[in-house]
Amino acid sequence: MTESLTLLKKSVPFCSKMARSHHRKKHKHFQPPAHTGDQIKKKRRGASVIAIAGAVVAFVISYSATEGNLIWVIAITVAGAALGYLIGNSLDKSDERK
Protein backbone atom coordinates (compact mmCIF):
# COMPACT_ATOMS: atom_id res chain seq x y z
CA MET A 1 0.00 0.00 0.00
CA THR A 2 2.79 2.42 0.75
CA GLU A 3 4.33 1.58 -2.60
CA SER A 4 1.15 2.61 -4.40
CA LEU A 5 1.10 5.96 -2.56
CA THR A 6 4.71 6.68 -3.42
CA LEU A 7 4.04 5.81 -7.05
CA LEU A 8 0.99 8.04 -7.03
CA LYS A 9 2.97 10.93 -5.55
CA LYS A 10 5.72 10.54 -8.12
CA SER A 11 3.37 10.24 -11.07
CA VAL A 12 1.20 13.29 -10.20
CA PRO A 13 3.13 16.56 -10.25
CA PHE A 14 2.11 18.85 -7.38
CA CYS A 15 2.92 22.48 -7.00
CA SER A 16 5.03 23.19 -3.98
CA LYS A 17 2.60 25.90 -2.87
CA MET A 18 -1.07 25.19 -2.93
CA ALA A 19 -3.63 27.95 -3.19
CA ARG A 20 -4.74 29.12 0.22
CA SER A 21 -8.24 30.47 -0.08
CA HIS A 22 -8.29 32.03 3.37
CA HIS A 23 -5.46 34.37 2.34
CA ARG A 24 -7.20 35.61 -0.80
CA LYS A 25 -8.99 38.93 -0.90
CA LYS A 26 -12.75 38.79 -0.66
CA HIS A 27 -14.91 39.85 -3.59
CA LYS A 28 -16.14 43.39 -3.27
CA HIS A 29 -19.62 44.18 -4.43
CA PHE A 30 -20.04 47.33 -6.49
CA GLN A 31 -21.95 50.10 -4.75
CA PRO A 32 -22.76 53.07 -6.97
CA PRO A 33 -22.04 56.46 -5.44
CA ALA A 34 -24.92 58.12 -3.68
CA HIS A 35 -26.47 61.04 -5.54
CA THR A 36 -27.29 64.29 -3.91
CA GLY A 37 -30.10 66.54 -5.08
CA ASP A 38 -27.70 68.83 -6.91
CA GLN A 39 -26.30 66.09 -9.11
CA ILE A 40 -29.63 64.85 -10.43
CA LYS A 41 -30.88 66.96 -13.30
CA LYS A 42 -34.53 67.85 -13.37
CA LYS A 43 -36.49 67.05 -16.47
CA ARG A 44 -37.19 70.23 -18.34
CA ARG A 45 -40.74 69.93 -19.51
CA GLY A 46 -41.82 73.55 -19.35
CA ALA A 47 -40.96 74.32 -22.95
CA SER A 48 -43.04 71.52 -24.43
CA VAL A 49 -46.01 72.04 -22.11
CA ILE A 50 -46.18 75.77 -22.75
CA ALA A 51 -45.68 75.18 -26.50
CA ILE A 52 -48.73 72.91 -26.59
CA ALA A 53 -50.75 75.38 -24.53
CA GLY A 54 -49.66 78.22 -26.83
CA ALA A 55 -50.70 76.22 -29.88
CA VAL A 56 -54.15 75.50 -28.42
CA VAL A 57 -54.73 79.12 -27.43
CA ALA A 58 -53.49 80.34 -30.82
CA PHE A 59 -55.78 77.85 -32.59
CA VAL A 60 -58.84 78.98 -30.68
CA ILE A 61 -58.11 82.67 -31.22
CA SER A 62 -57.18 82.27 -34.90
CA TYR A 63 -60.20 80.11 -35.68
CA SER A 64 -62.60 82.66 -34.23
CA ALA A 65 -60.75 85.67 -35.66
CA THR A 66 -60.35 84.39 -39.22
CA GLU A 67 -63.76 82.67 -39.35
CA GLY A 68 -62.20 79.28 -40.15
CA ASN A 69 -59.76 80.25 -42.94
CA LEU A 70 -57.53 77.17 -42.91
CA ILE A 71 -54.28 78.80 -44.07
CA TRP A 72 -54.40 81.50 -41.39
CA VAL A 73 -55.47 79.06 -38.70
CA ILE A 74 -52.48 76.81 -39.42
CA ALA A 75 -50.02 79.71 -39.67
CA ILE A 76 -51.16 81.34 -36.42
CA THR A 77 -51.24 77.97 -34.59
CA VAL A 78 -47.64 77.23 -35.61
CA ALA A 79 -46.60 80.74 -34.57
CA GLY A 80 -48.35 80.29 -31.21
CA ALA A 81 -46.58 76.97 -30.64
CA ALA A 82 -43.20 78.52 -31.48
CA LEU A 83 -43.85 81.46 -29.17
CA GLY A 84 -44.95 79.09 -26.40
CA TYR A 85 -41.78 77.02 -26.86
CA LEU A 86 -39.57 80.10 -26.61
CA ILE A 87 -41.35 81.30 -23.47
CA GLY A 88 -41.15 77.84 -21.88
CA ASN A 89 -37.47 77.49 -22.77
CA SER A 90 -36.66 80.83 -21.19
CA LEU A 91 -38.61 79.85 -18.05
CA ASP A 92 -36.59 76.59 -17.83
CA LYS A 93 -33.32 78.45 -18.15
CA SER A 94 -34.30 81.02 -15.52
CA ASP A 95 -35.28 78.15 -13.19
CA GLU A 96 -31.78 76.61 -13.57
CA ARG A 97 -30.10 79.85 -12.54
CA LYS A 98 -31.84 79.95 -9.17
Tally of extended strands? 0
Please give the share of residues in helix: 55-70%
Coarse structural class: mainly alpha
Largest sheet: none
In the predicted model, the low-confidence regions spanning at least 5 consecutive residues are: none
Number of helices: 3
Overall, the morphology is rod-shaped
Mean pLDDT comes to: 78
Query: Beta-strand percentage?
Result: under 5%
Element-by-element helix/strand order = HHH
State the distance separating the first and last CA atoms. Answer: 87 Å
Oligomer type = single chain
* C-alpha Rg (nearest Å): 37 Å
Write the layout of secondary structure elements.
Blueprint: H1 2-11, H2 46-65, H3 70-97
Helix pairs in contact: 2-3
Protein architecture, described:
The protein has helices at about 1-10, 45-65, 70-95. The longest helix has 28 residues, at about 70-95. The relative contact order is 0.12. It has three helices and no strands. The protein has a domain at about 55-98. The model has no long low-confidence stretch (mean pLDDT about 80). It is an all-alpha fold.
